Automatic annotation (TrEMBL):
Listed InterPro entries: HATPase_C_sf, HATPase_dom, His_kinase_dom, Ig-like_fold, Reg_prop, Sig_transdc_His_kin_sub3_dim/P, WD40/YVTN_repeat-like_dom_sf, Y_Y_Y
Name of the featured protein: Signal transduction histidine kinase/ligand-binding sensor domain-containing protein
Entry's Gene Ontology molecular function annotations: phosphorelay sensor kinase activity; protein dimerization activity
PANTHER family the record matches: HYBRID SIGNAL TRANSDUCTION HISTIDINE KINASE C (PTHR43547:SF2), TWO-COMPONENT HISTIDINE KINASE (PTHR43547)
Recorded GO CC terms: membrane
Keywords: Kinase, Membrane, Phosphoprotein, Transferase, Transmembrane, Transmembrane helix
Length: 1000
C-alpha cells in the first residue's frame, strides 16, 4: 500500500505554477557579508543565522553581520576560511567543517576550539560534521574517514576508514547523515552506503558496488531526510526520491518543462514543501499537492533572484527561504501570502509596465485597470493574468492617439465618459484605443497645456486644473472658459464633494473651498494656509472630512481643523498623497515612506514598507483608487500596489532579542564570557559608566524595529527608541536588572524580555563597613568631644569652686583675724575692766560678767570654726577628734567617730575641704535634725577615700540640694575634690551621707 501511495505522489506531480508570492531581499557583501559564495547555512537556537562562506563564518541578526575570519596562528580563532558545513549542539555550540578540519564554536566565550586531524597527517584536511550527541560528535574527514569523537577526552573512534568521496566545485562537503533508524547513510563518490554501526553490516544503493541493491550509479551531492520518511538525493542529473524501506525510487529530471542538470542543494520547509537549488534554473519549490513553482533572475527586477546559479538553499523553522545565488551573497525569500501585491516596472520585460512612475489609475471593467504613467502612456493591466496587455502612447502621426504619454489624471464623469488630463492637453476616450484631444491654445507650446487634475462642475462642464489657472470645459462646445480670480495660477488639486461646492489647492499656497458664479471664483473659507491638500474623503461614520496634505492628516469638522496627525503620532511619513476609507472605517494613506493604515478611534497607525510587498517607499498624488470588488490600489514611483484591506493582518511575529556587546567607560569590556550568553554581571565601583548593545532577531521587518528598555531600580518607566544602544553614566552602587524588549515592523511588541542582572559594587568608602567605621569614629569623636567638654566644664567649675572656696577660706581667715585682733581685743579689755569692779557692790556688773564670758567663748568658738589651727597644725584627724570631744562633752548629742583605714595625713587642700564638709554636716544636724546620735566613719576602699555620716534625726524630703540646708556648699566641695556625694534621707528616717573621694 505504501508503495502505491509513493507512486501516486509522482503521478500527481503536474508541476504547474501555483500562487504563493514571495518578497525577495538581496543580502550581499555590500551589507557586510564576508564573501558571496555561501555553502553552509544554519539558524541556531538563539535566532541567529550563520553563513559559511569561502572566506569566513558570518553571524547575521537581520540587521548586521559579525564575521569570524580564519587565523591558524591564534589557538582560539577559526581554523580554515572555507566553511562547508555546520550543526548545532544541544548547548548551543556550533560544530563547523572547514577546509582545515573540525572546529567548535564555543558560544559562552565567543571563540573557537580546533580539533586537528590524525597526527600523521601533516597538512590540513577538509571535514564535515553531521551529528552531535554529547559528548560525541560524528564527522566525515577527507583524511580519516567517518569518525566518532569524544570531544571531552579527545578520543577518536574511526568507524569507516575507507570512504571514497571526492570534493570539488559541485560537492564542497560530504552529505553523510544518520537515518531515522539510527543507521548511517554514507555518501560515496558514487552512490550510497547504509552502515549499521552495531552490526557493521553494509548495504549499497545507486552504486557500482557488486552488492548494489537498486539504482544506477549516481554522484550524490546532498541528502535530505524528509519528514514523511522519504529520502531526497540531489545529483548532477536532477533529484531522486528514494523510499529506504521499500527501496522504490523516482528520478525527476524535468520541472515545468525545464531540464534539470545539477541540483546543488535541497531542503524541506515546515509545511512539507521541497526546495531545490539548481545550477542554472534558479530555485524550484515542490508542493505536496503536486505543483511546482520556479524562481529565477529577471533583469532589472530587484524582487527576483540575483542570478540562476543557486549553490545552496536553507529553510529555517519560521518558513523563510535562504538561498545563495553564487557568488552574489544571499537571497531571502519571504512568503507574503495574500498581503500586499505589487506590479513593478521591469525594464525590457514583456507584459510589464512601460514606465515605473504611476501617476493615476482607474478601473475600466471587472478585468481591466488603466494605469497612467509619467512617460510611458496608458498601460492596460489585466487583473486575472497580472499582465499589461496593451499600452497607449502618444503618436504625433496619429491624431486619435492620446495627446501625451505623460498621464496625470483619469476622471469618469456622470455620463461614464472617461477624461484624461495629460502633460499636453485634455483627452476623451472614444473606445477601441481612440482618443479625442483638446488644447487651451493651438500653439501647443511646451507648458501651455499641462493639465493636472479634473472634476465635474455639472453635467455640461468639467473643471480643469492646469499650470495656468482653473478652467471650465464645455463638453458640447468643446471650449475652455477661464475662471476669473484664478488666472495664471498653478492648480494642483481640485474636488467637488457636494454640488456647487469646490475645494482646490494652489501649489504650495494652501487650500480653499468656495463656489463659482458667472465664471468667477468666490472663496468661502480657508481650509489650509500654506502647503498642499492632495486628497479629500468624507467619513460619514464620524461625520467629518479627512484631508491628506503634504504636512500630515487633517480632521476637518464644522468648518475647522480639529485634529492633525503627523510622523510623531506614528504616521509613516507626513507627506500624504492618497487617502481611502475601508469598510471597517479605517483610513489607508499612501506617503513618501510607504503605506499607513489608521484607526481614528484608537489613533493607532500601522505602517507598511517595501519588505511587506509594496512597489516602493514613495507614492504619487492622484494615484489611488478602490475598484468594484473592494480592492485598493496605490501607485508610486516603481509601479503600483494592490490589496484587499480585510486581508491585511498585523504582523504578530515576536522577535527574539539578544545582547550583542558591552562597554565599560566607553571601551569594549573584557568579560569572562560572551555578553549574549551572560545573565549576570558584577562591576567595580570605577566601572559604573557602561553601554549595552542589543538587537532584535527579526528577518521580516527590514530593520524597522523599535526597542523598550529600562534599568530596574534606577528607572521605573520604559524608554522607547529605534536605536539599539543605551548608555548609563555614573550609576550609583547597587543591584539592577537591565530589561529590553523589541517590536516588529508593524509595531507589535514581543512578550519576551531579555534581562541582565548588573551589580555595581560600591567604592570602599561607600561600603557598609566603611560607613559603620565612620559612624563609630564620629560617635567616638562625639563622645570624646563630649567628655572633653564635660571635663573642661568640670575643670572650669572646679577652678571656680576652688576660687570660691579659696576666697571663702581667705575671708574666713581675714574675718578670724579681724575678730581676734579687734573684737576679741575689745572683749578682753572689757573683761579686764569688769574684773576690777567689785561685783558684790554692783549688781549690774555681776550680770554683765557671765554674758561677757559667754560672748568671749562664742567668739573663740567662731574663731576656731573660721580658722581651725589644729587642722593646720595637727591635721584632719586631730581636728575631727577635737570636734568629737567637744560635742560629747556638752552631752546634748552623742558623737561616735570611727577612724578606720584612713590616712593620717592628706594634702592640705583635701583636709580643709573634708573638714569643712564634716563641719557642715554636723552643723546641719545640730540646727535642724533634733538628733541624739551622730556616727562618722572615715575609711579607704580601693581607689577612694570614703566618709560615711549618719544621724538619727528627723530627716527631710528629698529635693534638689539647696543652700537653705547648707548642703550646696557640701556638694561644691565634693565636686572640687572630683568625688561622689550620695544622700539617703526621708522624713523620720534620719540622714545617711556617703562621700567618695578618688585618690590623686
Amino acid at each position: 500500500m505504501r508503495k502505491i501511495l509513493f507512486l501516486v505522489w509522482y503521478i500527481g506531480l503536474s508541476l504547474h505554477l501555483f500562487g504563493q508570492t514571495y518578497q525577495i531581499e538581496r543580502i550581499g557583501t555590500d551589507k557586510g557579508l564576508s564573501q558571496g559564495s555561501v555553502y553552509a547555512m544554519l539558524k541556531d537556537s538563539r535566532g541567529f543565522m550563520w553563513f559559511g562562506t569561502q572566506d569566513g563564518l558570518n553571524r547575521y541578526d537581520g540587521h548586521h553581520f559579525k564575521v569570524y575570519y580564519s587565523d591558524t596562528d591564534q589557538p582560539n580563532a577559526l581554523h580554515g576560511g572555507f566553511v562547508n558545513s555546520m550543526i548545532e549542539a544541544p548547548n548551543g555550540d556550533l560544530w563547523l567543517g572547514t577546509d582545515y578540519g573540525l572546529n567548535l564554536y564555543q558560544r559562552q566565550t565567543d571563540d573557537f576550539r580546533f580539533f586537528p586531524s590524525a597526527p600523521e597527517r601533516k597538512t590540513p584536511s577538509a571535514c564535515s560534521p553531521f551529528a552531535v550527541r554529547p559528548p560525541f560528535v560524528w564527522y566525515w574527514s577527507e583524511s580519516e574517514g567517518i569518525v566518532k569523537l569524544n570531544y571531552d577526552t579527545q578520543q577518536k573512534t574511526v568507524l569507516l576508514a575507507d570512504v571514497s568521496y571526492d570534493l570539488g566545485l559541485l560537492s564542497v562537503s560530504n552529505a553523510t547523515k544518520f537515518g531515522k533508524d539510527g543507521r548511517l547513510w554514507v555518501s560515496l563518490s558514487e552512490g550510497l552506503m547504509q552502515y549499521d554501526t552495531s552490526s557493521r553490516q553494509m548495504r549499497y544503493f545507486f552504486s557500482k558496488h557488486p552488492k548494489n541493491i537498486t539504482g544506477n550509479p549516481i554522484s550524490i551531492l546532498k541528502i535530505l531526510m524528509a519528514k514523511e520518511g522519504l529520502m531526497y538525493l540531489s545529483h548532477s542529473n536532477g533529484v531522486t526520491i528514494f523510499n529506504p524501506k521499500t527501496t522504490d525510487f523516482k528520478h525527476i529530471t524535468h520541472l515545468n518543462g525545464i531540464e534539470l542538470n545539477e541540483i546543488y542543494d535541497l531542503d524541506e520547509s515546515p509545511d512539507g514543501d521541497i526546495w531545490l537549488a539548481t545550477s542554472s534554473s534558479g530555485l524550484f519549490r515542490l508542493s505536496k499537492d503536486g505543483k511546482a513553482q520556479q524562481f529565477i533572475h529577471q533583469k532589472n527586477d530587484n524582487n527576483s533572484l540575483s542570478n540562476n546559479t543557486i549553490s545552496s538553499v536553507y529553510i529555517s523553522k519560521d518558513g523563510l527561504v535562504w538561498a545563495n545565488p553564487d557568488p552574489l551573497g544571499i537571497n531571502l525569500l519571504i512568503g507574503t501570502g495574500k498581503k500586499f501585491r505589487s506590479i513593478k516596472y521591469v525594464a525590457e520585460a514583456q507584459n510589464s509596465l512601460s514606465d515605473p512612475n504611476v501617476r493615476t489609475m482607474i478601473e475600466m471593467d471587472k478585468n481591466q485597470v488603466w494605469v497612467g504613467t509619467e512617460q510611458g502612456g496608458i498601460n492596460v493591466w489585466n487583473k486575472q493574468t497580472g499582465l499589461v496587455e496593451k499600452c497607449f502612447k502618444s503618436d504625433p502621426a496619429n491624431p486619435r492617439s492620446v495627446p501625451s504619454s505623460s498621464i496625470y489624471h483619469f476622471f469618469r464623469d456622470t455620463q461614464q465618459q472617461l477624461w484624461i488630463a495629460t502633460y499636453n492637453g485634455l483627452a476623451k476616450y472614444l473606445g477601441d484605443g481612440a482618443f479625442e484631444s483638446y488644447f487651451l491654445t493651438t500653439k501647443k507650446n511646451m507648458g501651455d497645456n499641462i493639465f493636472r487634475c479634473l472634476a465635474e462642475w455639472d453635467a455640461a462642464h468639467l473643471l480643469v486644473g492646469t499650470e495656468n489657472g482653473l478652467f471650465l470645459f464645455d463638453k458640447s462646445k468643446k471650449v475652455f472658459i477661464p475662471i476669473k480670480g484664478l488666472e495664471n495660477i498653478s492648480i494642483l488639486w481640485i474636488d467637488q464633494p457636494t454640488p456647487g461646492e469646490l475645494w482646490l489647492t494652489r501649489f504650495n499656497e494652501g487650500c480653499w473651498k468656495g463656489t463659482l458664479r458667472n465664471h468667477e471664483w468666490l472663496p468661502q473659507a480657508t481650509v489650509l494656509v500654506g502647503g498642499n491638500a492632495l486628497a479629500l474623503r468624507k467619513d460619514a461614520y464620524r461625520n467629518c472630512w479627512w484631508i491628506a496634505t503634504n504636512n500630515g492628516l487633517l480632521n476637518y469638522q464644522n468648518g475647522r481643523i480639529v485634529q492633525k496627525f503627523t510622523a510623531k503620532d506614528g504616521l509613516a511619513n507626513a507627506y500624504i498623497y492618497g487617502l481611502l476609507l475601508d469598510s471597517q472605517h479605517n483610513l489607508w494613506l499612501s506617503t513618501n515612506r510607504g503605506l499607513s493604515s489608521f484607526n481614528p478611534d484608537t489613533h493607532q497607525f500601522r505602517n507598511y514598507h517595501v519588505s511587506d510587498g509594496l512597489q516602493g517607499y514613495e507614492f504619487n498624488n492622484r494615484s489611488y483608487m478602490a475598484d468594484s470588488e473592494g480592492v485598493f490600489y496605490f501607485g508610486g514611483t516603481n509601479g503600483f500596489t494592490y490589496f484587499r484591506p480585510n486581508e491585511i493582518r498585523t504582523n504578530t511575529f515576536q522577535p527574539q532579542i539578544q545582547l550583542t556587546h558591552f562597554e565599560i567607560n566607553y571601551q569594549p569590556a573584557q568579560l569572562p564570557q560572551y555578553i549574549g550568553e551572560t545573565s549576570e554581571l558584577t562591576l567595580k565601583a570605577d566601572q559604573n559608566t557602561f553601554s549595552l548593545g542589543f538587537i532584535a532577531i527579526d528577518y521580516l521587518s527590514s530593520g524597522k524595529n523599535n526597542y523598550q528598555y529600562r534599568l530596574v531600580n534606577l528607572e521605573d518607566n520604559w524608554n522607547t527608541t529605534p536605536d539599539n544602544l543605551v548608555r548609563y553614566v555614573q550609576v550609583p552602587p547597587g543591584e539592577y536588572i537591565f530589561e529590553v524588549k523589541a517590536s516588529n515592523g508593524d509595531g507589535f511588541w514581543s512578550d519576551e524580555v531579555r534581562r541582565l542582572k548588573i551589580t555595581v559594587l560600591p567604592a570602599f568608602w561607600q561600603t557598609w563597613w566603611f560607613r559603620l567605621l565612620n559612624l563609630l569614629l564620629l560617635i567616638g569623636i562625639g563622645i570624646g568631644f563630649y567628655r572633653w567638654r564635660i571635663q573642661q566644664l568640670q575643670r572650669q567649675q572646679r577652678e571656680r569652686l576652688e576660687l570660691i572656696i579659696k576666697t571663702q577660706e581667705a575671708e574666713r581667715k581675714q574675718l578670724a583675724t579681724e575678730l581676734h585682733d579687734d573684737l576679741g581685743m575689745r572683749l578682753s579689755t572689757l573683761q579686764m575692766y569688769l574684773s576690777e569692779i567689785d561685783i558684790s557692790q554692783n549688781s549690774r556688773a555681776s550680770k554683765l560678767t557671765p554674758l561677757l564670758n559667754e560672748a568671749i567663748a562664742d567668739i573663740r568658738n567662731l574663731l576656731r570654726d573660721l580658722n581651725p589651727k589644729l587642722l593646720f597644725e595637727e591635721g584632719l584627724r586631730v581636728a575631727v577628734e577635737e570636734v568629737n570631744s567637744k560635742l560629747n562633752a556638752v552631752g546634748l548629742i552623742k558623737f561616735e567617730l570611727l577612724w578606720l583605714d584612713f590616712p593620717e595625713k592628706l594634702p592640705e587642700v583635701i583636709e580643709i575641704n573634708l573638714f569643712r564638709i564634716i563641719q557642715e554636716l554636723i552643723n546641719n544636724t545640730l540646727k535642724h535634725a533634733e538628733a541624739t546620735h551622730i556616727t562618722l566613719q572615715l575609711l579607704q576602699r580601693d581607689a577612694h577615700w570614703v566618709i560615711i555620716y549618719e544621724d538619727n534625726g528627723r530627716g527631710f524630703e528629698r529635693q534638689p540640694l539647696s543652700s537653705g540646708f547648707g548642703l550646696q556648699n557640701i556638694e561644691n566641695r565634693v565636686q572640687l575634690l572630683k568625688g561622689q556625694l550620695h544622700f539617703d534621707t526621708a522624713p523620720q528616717r534620719g540622714v545617711h551621707v556617703t562621700i567618695e573621694i578618688p585618690h590623686h
